[in-house]
Amino acid sequence: MGLEEEGKEVYKEALEVVRKVSESLGSGELVPISRAHISGVSYVNIGDAGLEFIRDLAERGGRFRVATTLNPVAVDLEKWKEMDVPEEIVSKQKEIVELLVKMGAKPTLTCTPYLIDPPKRGEQVAWGESNAVLYANSVLGARTNREGGPLTILEAICGKAPYLGLRIDEGRKPTVEVYFEKEVWKAVENRKIPYSALGYSLGLAVGRGVPLLMETRLPFKHIKNFLAAVGASSSIGLVLIRGLSPEVKESNFYREKVEKISLSLTEVEDSIEKFRKKAEKADAVFLGCPHLSPSELREIFYFLEKKGWTPRKKVILSTSRWALNQVGGKICREKMDKVIILSDTCIVVSPIEYMNVKHVVTDSAKAAYYLSNKGLDVTLLPRKTILGDII
Amino acid sequence: MIIKARSIVPGNVSGLALVSRDPISFYGGVDPETGVIVEPGHSLEGEKISGKILIFPYGKGSTVGSYIIYRLKKRNLAPLAIVNLETEPIIVVGCVLSRIPLVDKPEANVTTIIKTGDTVTIKSAGKEAWIKVDKNGK
């Protein structure tokens, strides 16, 4: 069989899997997608099993039918030597990226595809990364379920996805109304807790479905971190937020009576209890989960500049190569000793054990959750406190 | 005893049952090199799933689990068939790609009726499946 015929076989197989998933969860209907974002690209996460699967597809002529972007990988592909990661991991990681690029993917290697090229309202996309799914659905009004790594690869090959869940109007109706008590807003505004803690506790309290926030004082710059935290503590893929989500802005937005829940400051604080280790003992500050945007980078650089680029603690920033280029990454990467700027990766999907970090301060509840699962101590603080008092 | 179920991946097989009351995470929960369940505290911890009719309520955990099912199959370490009470995408993706017969929504709770060691025959085709159970125990 020639490569082209084999490629057709891979296409048929991909279509069969996507159809079976749709049949097992719903009507069996499929919908065309305009683009895909593949999660589970880090060798540290998918291991040899994932590499083998991707290699099989690529070698048998599998190709992506839609524009496809990639999530972060295990190492910064330019600075991996500074990360002290063993060469075996680096070479297997490079092979994964090369295979996916051969299949037609663009190696964006970021968890924030919505910053680079945001999908439009109502656009059906297939995204695998939970924070990107939440952002696309909640902020942009695009449509995707939390598809997961292997399924997004197959959807990108056949250009279709199961037509169910958050892709249909019915699945996007609110299932619960969530309120944060006044003292919670006071605590975030007084920098006692970061906004991501609110997302984390919301996810824990609600678990699944579509929460609706009718009263929020969430500043737009904290939405990304807030939604990422919801994704880490629940299987939620859409949060409807009044004043932000396109669907809620409409005058004909209709909501049936649903259960209302109210979260107190105690509940929010209890949810992040594990992430309150003493900051003085931390050996690094980590910012960039999800990847930092160009404006966030500029703000952090402003604070680092004031410290003459020699902060009190080691600072690890993770961002996309795209964002770094936007702010003139090459210049600011030169003179640094205690500031490590990583692109293509982040310390959540990298083999952190080689970086000699045991305790981090971060403003991301998502990072806090995954890093503490990896055995690190974590201190969760607001961004402003970290920039003003810690670094 | 014959139990009706829903067919997801077709196939006709017969083998010994391995039954779990806990959901299974293939990623982290099953060793892809040996086919042994390694999740600490799991009711099947230490059991080998290879060549068995694996019966459990549903899949859980990371979607990387689909890759693990695929790898097990390539190494001839996969279960003969999977029976779920209600399946989900991790298991569906893994089984379709690996051609492992998969059935779910049985009309009776197979995780309590069927015991590990019973002989189970699966006939899965079209939309329907049949699970035939022969009791081997006392």
Question: Overview of this structure, please?
Answer:
The complex is a heterodimer of chains A (391) and B (138). Chain A has 391 residues and is of the alpha/beta class. Chain A folds into three domains: 3-170, Aconitase, domain 3 (2-Layer Sandwich); 173-271, no CATH class; 274-390, 3-Layer(aba) Sandwich (Rossmann fold). Chain A contains 16 helices and 14 strands. A seven-stranded mixed beta barrel of chain B has the order 1-5-4-3-2-6-7. Chain B is globular. The model of chain B has no long low-confidence stretch (mean pLDDT 94). Chain B has a single domain (2-110), classed as 3-Layer(bba) Sandwich (Glucose Oxidase, domain 1). The two termini of chain B are 16 Å apart. At the A-B interface, helix 1, helix 2 and helix 6 of A face helix 2 and helix 3 of B.
Biggest β-sheet description of chain B:
7 strands, mixed, barrel
Spans of chain B of at least 5 consecutive residues whose pLDDT stays below 50 are: none
Biggest sheet statistics of chain A: 5 strands, parallel
Count of DSSP-assigned helices of chain A = 16
Distance between the termini of chain B: 16 Å
Helical residue percent of chain A?
40-55%
The CATH architecture classification of the largest domain in chain A is 2-Layer Sandwich
> What is the N-to-C succession of helices and strands of chain A?
HEEHEHHEHHEEHHEHEHEHEHEHHEEHEH
According to DSSP, the number of beta strands of chain A is: 14
Can you give the mean pLDDT of chain A? 93
Which radius of gyration of chain A do the C-alpha atoms yield? 21 Å
* Unreliable parts of chain A: none
**CATH homologous superfamily (4th level) name of chain B:** Phosphohistidine domain
Widest sheet, order of strands of chain A: 12-11-10-13-14
Strand fraction band of chain A?
15-25%
Q: Count the domains of chain B.
A: 1
